[in-house]
Design a protein that fits this description.
221 residues, alpha+beta, seven-stranded mixed beta sheet, two-stranded antiparallel sheet
């Protein structure tokens, strides 16, 4: 028995209505992007630990600063201030080698010095390792400018300080900030090993007499 045309039409309409032969609608680019985002968020992630930034060793500090309560040292640095061709950044010297070099004469006694270190934090958020020499062994006293610097560094543990060199009077203008309430953001690890490592690393250390800096200082290179 043949179906009527009306029956065929009804059946076709029913199939269309139920989606029996309908193709799935393609996802839009935004649906794809959001799905990918959610899948990424669900994945386990591992955070790469960043190496701590370097702390610059220096004998000078500019601008407003605070100091950490810790005091580091004593240790030896090589810092030939009056020699051309050398960086003004101090270099760490191994203790036994420092004694040997200083025994050679006044040239190394002036360039290799025993110092203490203060961890300083500036208003700009930079960290510095401020180095000051030990008192003169003969007199037990500091140069007047170094005495001023030490007093300011000690006071900077409690308040914001600034040292501006006064050329006419040959001393520092010691300034104290009024109304500054910002507290320094100190590193988590402020141990002596951690601070020395961040200040000098492996490269800025003189370990033996054959170091290129020593040879250059002697005029051998």
């Amino acid at each position: 028995m043949k179906k009527s045309e009306s029956q065929d039409t009804e059946n076709t309409s029913a199939i269309s209505a139920t989606g029996g032969d309908a193709k799935p609608t393609a996802e839009s680019v935004f649906e794809l992007a959001l799905r990918a985002r959610n899948e990424r968020a669900a994945r386990p992630t591992t955070r790469v630990a960043r190496a701590p930034s370097r702390i610059r060793p220096t004998t000078k500090i500019k601008g407003w600063f605070r100091c950490h309560e810790a005091l580091y040292g004593p240790f030896f640095i090589f810092n030939p201030k009056d020699e051309g061709g050398f960086s003004d950044e101090p270099v760490f010297v191994m203790p036994d080698l420092a004694d040997e070099l200083r025994a050679e004469g006044s040239q190394f006694q002036n360039a290799v010095r025993e110092v203490m270190g203060y961890l300083a934090y500036t208003m700009g958020g930079a960290l510095y390792f401020v180095l000051v020499p030990l008192p003169d062994p003969a007199t037990g006293r500091h140069h007047s400018a170094n005495e001023q610097k030490i007093e300011a560094l000690e006071a900077a543990r409690r308040e914001w300080k600034r040292l501006d060199w006064n050329k006419d009077q040959r001393q520092y203008d010691d300034l104290t900030a009024l109304g500054m309430t910002v507290e320094p953001d100190w590193p988590e690890d402020v141990s002596e090993v951690a601070i020395l490592t961040r200040a000098f690393g492996e490269r800025n250390v003189i370990k033996d007499r054959d170091d290129p800096l020593i040879a250059k200082f002697r005029g051998e290179a």
